[in-house]
Design a protein that fits this description.
Layout: E1 2-4, E2 11-13, E3 20-21, E4 31-32, H1 35-116, H2 121-187
Length: 188
């Protein structure tokens, strides 16, 4: 049986073309179309799907770029915090050294006073104990500051790892996007 392709109008027989298509979404009837028109309809549908996928990937890429920017900003913040902590360590070490020198001088002074005046011995021992407590406190503060510096550095390294992973993901999406664009351009 010979009929006309409902798209291009060419005459086709059932042996030449077995393709039957709905001509619109609202149409429930299927009409015979030639194989060339059938291929064009399939290609248009595939192209629309690829464009939709491309738009989705582009949106996802933009989101990833925003995430990379946020992570980069957090890294910069952490770098600044790290610099502040690094600057505090020498200051605390200097204070600790100065306090230790001062404590040693005061200890020597009090030792001489103890030898000279046994009545003031108890008072001097309390002062020495207080000075030793200050050394311990400064040692603790120094240790805590070093620990904070270490944690900030570890956090910074984790953030750098996240950025590296996000960049890798971005490159994969960019490659996929370039491949899909090339495919669309070659079909156009």
């Amino acid at each position: 049986m010979i009929s006309r392709s409902r798209i291009c109008g060419r005459s086709v027989c059932t042996g030449c073309s077995t393709s039957m298509r709905r001509l619109s979404r609202n149409d429930s009837n299927h009409y015979r179309v030639c194989d060339d028109c059938d291929d064009k309809l399939i290609n248009k549908k595939a192209e629309a799907e690829l464009r939709s996928l491309l738009e989705g990937k582009t949106h996802e890429l933009k989101l990833n770029m925003g995430e990379i920017e946020a992570i980069t900003n957090r890294i910069e913040d952490h770098k600044q915090e790290l610099e502040v902590l690094k600057k505090r360590v020498p200051e605390i070490e200097r204070e600790f050294a100065e306090d230790a020198k001062q404590l040693r001088r005061e200890d020597a002074k009090y030792q001489r006073l103890v030898e000279g005046d046994l009545a003031s011995k108890e008072s001097l021992e309390k002062s020495i104990a207080l000075n030793e407590k200050m050394v311990q406190d400064f040692t603790l503060v120094l240790g805590e500051t070093k620990e904070q510096l270490k944690k900030a550095e570890e956090h910074h390294l984790k953030e750098l790892d996240k950025v590296a992973k996000a960049e890798t993901k971005f490159k994969r999406y960019q490659h996929l996007l370039d491949t899909q664009k090339a495919q669309l351009d070659s079909k156009a």
